[in-house]
UniProtKB/TrEMBL annotation:
Gene3D superfamilies in the record: 3.40.50.970
UniProt superkingdom: Bacteria
Dehydrogenase E1 component domain ranges (all copies): 137-184
Source organism of this protein record: Granulicella pectinivorans
Protein name: Dehydrogenase E1 component
Length: 226
């Protein structure tokens, strides 16, 4: 993993935290704050011509990455929209579909996975937060439908990046769909703080750079608002 990719992921995560911090405080905001590693580590691999379909309408993904993200209600509906988009893509382009845990599985999900199996689609299932999500084994269901299912710690930005890059590379080479299921471990730590510590320990960045990322983005937002 290059130093540039690590710094870019950290920047995306900080941007997402700043944007979410401007939202009205509530349960949804707290849940989303814990998803920033899942977003940043996966969208960092998107390129011009790729398509992203999200489950949020607050502009956080767009503001973090600078790519257009279309928000569509309903997990199965979003996946079918991704299938339609994938059928019209040029060779080497991919579709990334974000799905909240409670939206995955259930009626119509397995059939949608079978349809998506040979298409260049990366499905990113966000962690369990609300306590009401399906208990389905999504990775097992994916594999039964012919789609590789890969569970990853949703707070480990580096592991998420590696899995996403492998899945994107496979999809771009006509290898078909993959499902990345991000999971929340009982002893989960803050993903942004953890990545900052890694950057400093490996001398990927110095403390002035780490501390300055948020300050620069907040200043930029202030200029745009002004």
């Amino acid at each position: 993993m290059s130093h540039k990719s690590l710094r870019t992921m950290f920047t995306f995560m900080v941007k997402a935290r700043v944007l979410l911090g401007r939202m009205k405080a509530g349960r949804g905001q707290r849940a989303a704050l814990a998803d920033v590693a899942c977003w940043a580590s996966t969208v960092v691999g998107l390129e011009d011509g790729d398509v992203a379909l999200g489950c949020r309408e607050d502009g956080v993904l767009e503001g973090m990455r600078g790519v257009s993200v279309v928000a569509i209600a309903g997990g199965v509906e979003r996946l079918y929209a991704g299938i339609g988009a994938a059928l019209g893509l040029k060779k080497g382009r991919v579709v990334m579909v974000f799905v909240e845990r409670h939206e995955a599985g259930g009626r119509g999900w397995d059939e949608a996975l079978r349809v998506a199996a040979e298409l260049p689609i990366i499905i990113v299932v966000l962690p369990r937060w609300k306590g009401v999500e399906t208990d389905a084994d999504l990775c097992k269901e994916a594999r039964l439908a012919g789609v590789p299912g890969i569970p990853v710690d949703g707070q480990d930005a580096k592991a998420l990046y590696r899995v996403a890059q492998e899945s994107l590379g496979r999809a771009r080479a006509d290898g078909g769909c993959a499902l990345i299921e991000t999971v929340m471990l009982p002893d989960a730590s803050d993903a942004i703080a953890g990545l900052a510590e890694y950057l400093l320990a490996r001398k990927v960045a110095n403390k002035a750079w780490v501390d300055g990322v948020e300050k620069k983005f907040v200043a930029l937002l202030g200029q745009r608002i002004g």
